[in-house]
Amino acid sequence: MSYRGPTTYVLYRLRASFWFVPGTMAVVAFAAAALSLWADGAGVSELLKPLGAPFSIEKDTARDLLSTLAGATVTVVSLVFSLTLVTLTVAAGNLGARLLERYMQNRVTQVTMGLFVGTFVYTVVVLSAVGTGPVEVPRLSVVTALVMSIFSVGWLMYAFHDLARSLQVDQAAAEIGAALRRDISVAAARAREIGAAGGDDLPTGGPQCIVDSRAIGYVESIDWQMLGAVAKEHDLMLDVTIAQGAYVTPVDPIATVFGRDRADDALCRQIREAVILGSVRTEADDLMFLLHLLVEIASRALSPGINDLYTALACVDHVTGSLAQALEDGLERVAVRGDDGRLLVRTRSADVSRMVSTALSTLRRNGMHNSTFALRLIRNIERLAPLARRHSTAPVFLEHLDRIADHAAANVPQVDRDAIDAAADRAREAFRL
Fold first, then answer.
1. Sign of the alpha-carbon torsion through 337, 341, 343, 348
2. pLDDT recorded at residue 225
3. Residue 208's beta-bridge partner residues?
4. pLDDT by residue (tens digit) across 374-397?
5. pLDDT at residue 191, rounded to an integer
6. pLDDT tens profile 54-102
7. Per-residue model confidence as pLDDT tens digits over 27-62
């Protein structure tokens, strides 16, 4: 398998890292310090001196000021880092450990770290030039360090606000739901660009062979265009039997090759290099991961140890919104075709039916002991009926609706069964209009 992904995957990994933004801002700060010191040496410092405070600062005062700023900046960096660790601990305990990566991706936290690290780097570089450079007091550089410190304090107040807001469970669910809807729109657009699966059947005759993974890990991304190019080059058809987010072992098949009774080493290597593996499952190119996060938060909220019904209801609302987005966009499995329309690669990418089955099956197993939750789930399913009829997925919803109604009726008190049965009947009628 390939651990070298396409550009979009590499960019995702950089965005998800906790070091990239602070490291980049530190490098920029070093370059900015060098540039401002050069400007001071070129005469800007003397031009600024007649302007008065703070440009009229003297050497000893500048050194003391920069030393104070550098020390205070390091202290704040330690504080921000400690608060980030506390946030991650609280998030892991209340929402689930799989949400930690989303908190690490928080751009406000990354920029806060980068801003203070960059200010520290800038201040130290300028401090080293006071009394030793072409001019004794690089006034432009010193005042710039002061302005950066003041701006950093203002940004810190906003960062605390964002940190407190991000710890709210409803806010976390809303952000995951919004991200899932965005990813659904992107995936649907990509499916339209590459090609939708349609009703093509696989060849029933002729030679075929299976390519196994020869590696272990979670499928984080699959380069469909690369697989299409391989199929076109070798005049083959590929049926990719894995999906993003799947866990594979060395003996698991990843694709069936139609048109060959045996795949040579070069062909197998090309197919394996199109599949990107990782040690953990992430949301990179995996719609189901974000859907699982929403379902997980709802399931945890319904557990006896937490018993937070309204968080579960909020998650169901966001799941419903995401399914509506998938229906509205017409999310279908990707199918790569040649210029002549011939099917080259059939995939197992996420589609509406798979999302519906994944979400509703898990919610049914974990929440049908609560009549309020069961009623909300049934009513939200009913709201999807107009879109489902248009997308021809009504049978999938009806199948899960029957299971939910039966499961709830077997677990809730008798007094609530009539309400659940009535809600289920109304939902069935909506899908059969």
1. positive
2. 86
3. 258
4. 999 999 999 999 999 988 899 999
5. 80
6. 777 888 888 999 999 999 999 988 888 888 778 777 777 767 777 777 7
7. 999 999 999 999 988 878 778 777 777 777 888 888
Q: How far apart are CA 186 and CA 182, in angstroms?
A: 6
- Cα distances from 406 to residues 59, 247, 361, 399, in angstroms, run 81, 32, 13, 11
What's the distance, CA 164 to chain centroid? 21
Secondary structure (H, E, C), 26-48: HHHHHHHHHHHHHHHHHHHHHHH
What backbone torsions phi and psi does residue 201 show, to the nearest 5 degrees?
-95, 155
Residue entry with tokens 């040649």 = 338
Evaluated on CA atoms 394, 396, 402, 404, the torsion sign reads negative
CA torsion angle 7 8 10 11 (round to 10): 110
In angstroms, the CA 371 to CA 413 distance is: 8
The full set of domain ranges for the chain reads 7-167, 290-331+351-432
* Cβ atoms of residues 222 and 350 within 8 Å: no
Per the DSSP assignment, residues forming a β-bridge with 337 are 343
pLDDT of residue 202: 63
**84: nearest Cα among 120, 119, 122, 114:** 114
pTM (2 d.p.) = 0.81
Q: List Cβ neighbours of 165 (8 Å cut-off, separation of 6 or more).
A: 171
- Going by C-alpha positions, the residue among 219, 232, 168 that lies closest to residue 349 is 219
